[in-house]
Amino acid sequence: MEPSTIAIHDLRSSDKNAIQQAAQLLLDEFRTLAPDAWETWDDALEDVQESLQPGRISRVAIAHGQEVIGWIGGVPTYSHAWELHPLVVKSSYQRQGVGRQLVADLETQVSDRGGLTLYVGSDDEAGLTSLAHQDLYPDPLEHLAAIQNRQGHPYTFYQKVGFVLVGVIPDANGWGKPDIWLAKRVKKSEPQEAPS
Length: 196
Fold this sequence. Notes:
By secondary structure, this protein is α+β, with helices and mostly antiparallel strands.
């Protein structure tokens, strides 16, 4: 699909069809990566509806005029940092630049709201990296520095779009199921003068 045929815009509470399509994307596309993330239709629908709360960002990629092929959200969590949650692209449109376009769009949205940093947690519940199925203590950062992508974990996608590894939470989703954290500066802050 040509990037020019994709439109990215706000997901609105009045667009029930797009909301349902975004929820279905969560269920379909995360089934293998994070099977416990959204176990039911109601769980997925609730996450989409939460993304529509005031102050949050919820954007969809639309193809063919009405088909939701991707969805990205942003949550303000610190004074100048936003969490990317979630990012999902329909499997038949993956590796075609849709995810890259959604991330770039979210970066602009966050920057326009005064954000400096965008960060994302990327769970490894399915044993896709060298961090899974092992005890990362006593030095989780040593393990993180030597991370290997064994079976298509999304952390390498985030690296390709400019994110860097910033941490890992061992056992975040159960023993041997870490959460891998990445971040990216989306806007340069002007240096502040030191007080005299």
